[in-house]
């Protein structure tokens, strides 16, 4: 440990592990430490005993739930967009070798008290009970416009400059009603609140395209994929990448105190009386609490069930979005469900999560609209966790701190944070051009 | 199998490498800086392809001509059998310097380096063996140095069909550590795993500290098979892998088959020539 490193990374959450991997591959000498004796930090997946220890203060889960090690319960539930940036990073780094995925069965939206499948293209729009007959036709036209839209081809723009036209104006052109706008904005474009209506429409159009391209990728019922054995596999896979390229791993290191010189620059990390020197420190907010501020809280419920979420066609994995407006809230609520089909629970068991940006101190009443959709549950845990973002100036103190995981349903914002941090740390932009079209072009 | 069932970019994956399976070669990808250190496999077969490929997959970069497929071993049943081809993940365990990487290099490439550096850049190797009626493709995982501070991730053990626990016969300490790794495997690994205990550096007889008898007794008590190897002289190296291949359980039906390969290319450019029918 008594050595000099280019970078010391603290915490083995997904963001830190991706960065550790990228930096090791770049040839930097990386030491990666965690105060816990397991990988993943906040983004780990817990077995039943760990879950009971964390939420019930004992390690005696009821025997009726089955074997502890058959459970992999995510602490930050999210799905991966099949065509999203995390998939690109996985392919770019070849970390895909260590992981196995399955498509998520269904994508649903809560509308006027009922759960509906999200229509993702013009054909599905015509079939969806979410809209009346005339509205369907209008929606279909809008979907076709979005599908055909090509940023580089003005002929597809229908005379509009989407970098100037707001989403509200674009939607008005197609005469869609508020109800349609609500599920398009929240369940397809995956906006968390209604700010997008007054922002340039290009963002919403791109998000809708990502959604439909992701669905098309596996011709499944949703645009999402999810790793077998839970999200906790992701940080482990990136940690292995880092180790393969010479990164040194130390778990179970208490304290991990960052040392500064008189100018306030990070110069090393001390644990158990030993100090490792370094030029830069990368960490999650919990390792440098004085350099972050609280930006919000996430309320969540974790449920163990013996049945799929009702009204989702018996999907063994599913997402249900409850748009804010449907609940009279400021932010959306999300339901996730995974099961033994993704190896996160023993045969016959389902794990459901309800989460949202907390607006009160009472997760139980706040999450009730989501929980009511689940039917009976075997076990339920409520929790509120706080989210932080860095307030330091990395160019001065050489500390690069990630932002806490937000309540979004997928990893797009997670990877954006990682890519920005990578650029701040190295001065380079990560070239993710191993994208779909480039990859196939290389093949011919 | 109906082509219509499969999403188009998956189609061409199958069977491209079948005729290569007897070569037992290690293919290196040299496409970009991430890939060049990941030797890749050339063979991949699975039973019940249609159902598996429709719902499971691993993400994988685009195939090249020399190496197109990753070999996702079946996770639950440990070894995947397809016709007479078996895919098996094999993990190496043992103290730093016991010779884990040297054993693999000897087995896979027939090489030995006197001053092998600590493992950097070797994610895993694959090697195919013909054993009796079947071919066994080993996907060999090295520790990548994560054993040094005891920080091997659970992922390392997951789905392993076999393990070789390596110690150095000139070091009692490394033998003691090997026992610790056996305990760890018994805790983390699959109970049906085939485990081998390898006393490496058998060429250094004059410096021997661990007797073969002592290790043999321990191995028998714990259900491992025991061998003394020398990566330097190649003694017993290939034999150990053959013995493991022979002991792998043959027909294990996949309970929850895993491992569809996703290729990162759009549908319209798939290669009709290598499509299964």
TrEMBL record, chain A:
<dbReference type="GO" id="GO:0015031">
    <property type="term" value="P:protein transport"/>
</dbReference>
<dbReference type="GO" id="GO:0005829">
    <property type="term" value="C:cytosol"/>
</dbReference>
<protein>
    <recommendedName>
        <fullName>Guanosine nucleotide diphosphate dissociation inhibitor</fullName>
    </recommendedName>
</protein>
<dbReference type="Pfam" id="PF00996">
    <property type="entry name" value="GDI"/>
</dbReference>
<dbReference type="InterPro" id="IPR036188">
    <property type="entry name" value="FAD/NAD-bd_sf"/>
</dbReference>
<dbReference type="GO" id="GO:0007264">
    <property type="term" value="P:small GTPase-mediated signal transduction"/>
</dbReference>
<dbReference type="InterPro" id="IPR000806">
    <property type="entry name" value="RabGDI"/>
</dbReference>
<comment type="similarity">
    <text>Belongs to the Rab GDI family.</text>
</comment>
<dbReference type="GO" id="GO:0016192">
    <property type="term" value="P:vesicle-mediated transport"/>
</dbReference>
<dbReference type="InterPro" id="IPR018203">
    <property type="entry name" value="GDP_dissociation_inhibitor"/>
</dbReference>
<dbReference type="GO" id="GO:0005093">
    <property type="term" value="F:Rab GDP-dissociation inhibitor activity"/>
</dbReference>
From TrEMBL, chain B:
<dbReference type="Pfam" id="PF00071">
    <property type="entry name" value="Ras"/>
</dbReference>
<dbReference type="InterPro" id="IPR027417">
    <property type="entry name" value="P-loop_NTPase"/>
</dbReference>
<dbReference type="InterPro" id="IPR005225">
    <property type="entry name" value="Small_GTP-bd"/>
</dbReference>
<keyword id="KW-0547">Nucleotide-binding</keyword>
<dbReference type="InterPro" id="IPR001806">
    <property type="entry name" value="Small_GTPase"/>
</dbReference>
<protein>
    <recommendedName>
        <fullName>Ras-related protein RHN1</fullName>
    </recommendedName>
</protein>
């Amino acid at each position: 440990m008594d050595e000099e490193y280019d970078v010391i990374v603290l915490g083995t959450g997904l963001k830190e592990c991706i960065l550790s991997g990228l930096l090791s591959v770049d040839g930097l000498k990386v030491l990666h430490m965690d105060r816990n004796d397991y990988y993943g930090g906040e983004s780990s997946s817990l077995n039943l005993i760990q879950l009971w220890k964390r939420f019930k203060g004992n390690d005696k889960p009821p025997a009726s739930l089955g074997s502890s090690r058959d459970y992999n319960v995510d602490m930050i539930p999210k799905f991966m967009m099949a065509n999203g940036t995390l998939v690109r990073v996985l392919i770019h780094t070849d970390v895909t070798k260590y992981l196995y995925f399955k498509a998520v069965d269904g994508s649903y939206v809560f509308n006027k008290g009922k759960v509906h499948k999200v229509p993702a293209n013009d054909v599905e729009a015509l079939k969806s009970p979410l809209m009346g007959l005339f509205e369907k036709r209008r929606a279909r036209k809008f979907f076709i416009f979005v599908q055909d839209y090509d940023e580089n081809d003005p002929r597809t723009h229908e005379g509009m400059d989407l970098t100037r036209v707001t989403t509200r104006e674009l939607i008005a052109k197609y005469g869609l009603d508020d109800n349609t706008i609500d599920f398009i904005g929240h369940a397809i474009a995956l906006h968390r609140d209604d700010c997008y209506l007054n922002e340039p429409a290009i963002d919403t159009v791109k998000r809708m395209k990502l959604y439909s391209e992701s669905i098309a990728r596996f011709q499944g019922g949703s645009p999402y994929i999810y790793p077998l054995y839970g999200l906790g596999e992701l940080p482990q896979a990136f940690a292995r990448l880092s180790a393969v390229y010479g990164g040194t791993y130390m778990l179970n290191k208490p304290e991990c105190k960052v040392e500064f010189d008189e100018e306030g620059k990070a110069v090393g990390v001390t644990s158990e009386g030993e100090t490792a020197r370094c030029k830069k420190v990368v960490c999650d907010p919990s390792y440098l609490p004085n350099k972050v501020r609280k930006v919000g809280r996430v309320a969540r419920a974790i449920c163990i069930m013996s049945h799929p979420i009702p009204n989702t066609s018996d999907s063994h994995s599913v997402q249900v979005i409850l748009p804010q407006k449907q609940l009279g809230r400021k932010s959306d609520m999300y339901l996730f469900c995974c099961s033994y089909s993704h190896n996160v629970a023993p045969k016959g068991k389902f794990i459901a999560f309800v989460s949202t940006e907390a607006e009160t101190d009472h997760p139980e009443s706040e999450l009730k609209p989501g929980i009511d959709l689940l039917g009976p549950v075997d076990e339920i845990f409520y929790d509120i966790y706080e989210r932080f973002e860095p307030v330091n100036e990395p160019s001065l103190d050489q500390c690069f701190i990630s932002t806490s995981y937000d309540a979004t349903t997928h990893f797009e914002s997670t990877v954006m944070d990682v890519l920005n941090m990578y650029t701040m740390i190295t001065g380079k932009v990560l070239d993710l051009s191993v994208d779909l079209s480039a990859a196939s072009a290389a093949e011919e | 199998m109906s082509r219509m069932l499969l999403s188009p970019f998956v189609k061409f994956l199958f069977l491209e490498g079948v005729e290569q399976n007897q070569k037992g070669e290690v293919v290196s990808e040299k496409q970009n800086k991430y890939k060049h250190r990941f030797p890749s496999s050339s063979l991949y077969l699975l039973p019940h392809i249609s159902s598996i490929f429709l719902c499971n997959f691993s993400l994988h970069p685009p195939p090249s001509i020399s190496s197109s497929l990753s070999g996702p071993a079946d996770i639950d049943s440990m070894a995947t059998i397809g016709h007479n081809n078996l895919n098996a993940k094999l993990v190496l365990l043992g103290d730093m310097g016991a010779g884990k990487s040297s054993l693999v290099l000897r087995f896979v490439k027939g090489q030995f380096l006197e001053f092998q550096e600590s493992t950097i850049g070797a994610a895993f190797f694959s090697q195919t063996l013909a054993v009796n009626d079947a071919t066994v493709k080993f996907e060999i995982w090295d520790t990548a140095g994560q054993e040094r501070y005891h920080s091997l991730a659970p992922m390392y053990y997951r789905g392993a069909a076999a393990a070789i626990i390596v110690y150095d016969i000139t070091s009692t300490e490394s033998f003691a550590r090997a026992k610790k790794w056996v305990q760890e495997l018994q805790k983390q690994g699959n109970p049906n795993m085939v485990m081998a205990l390898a006393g490496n550096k058998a060429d250094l007889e004059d410096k021997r500290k661990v007797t073969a008898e002592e290790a043999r007794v321990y191995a028998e008590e714990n259900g491992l098979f025991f061998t003394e190897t020398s990566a330097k002289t190649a003694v017993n190296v290939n034999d150990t892998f053959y013995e493991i291949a022979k002991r792998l359980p043959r027909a294990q039906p996949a309970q929850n088959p895993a491992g569809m390969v996703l290729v990162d290319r759009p549908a319209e450019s798939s290669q009709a020539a290598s499509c299964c029918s």
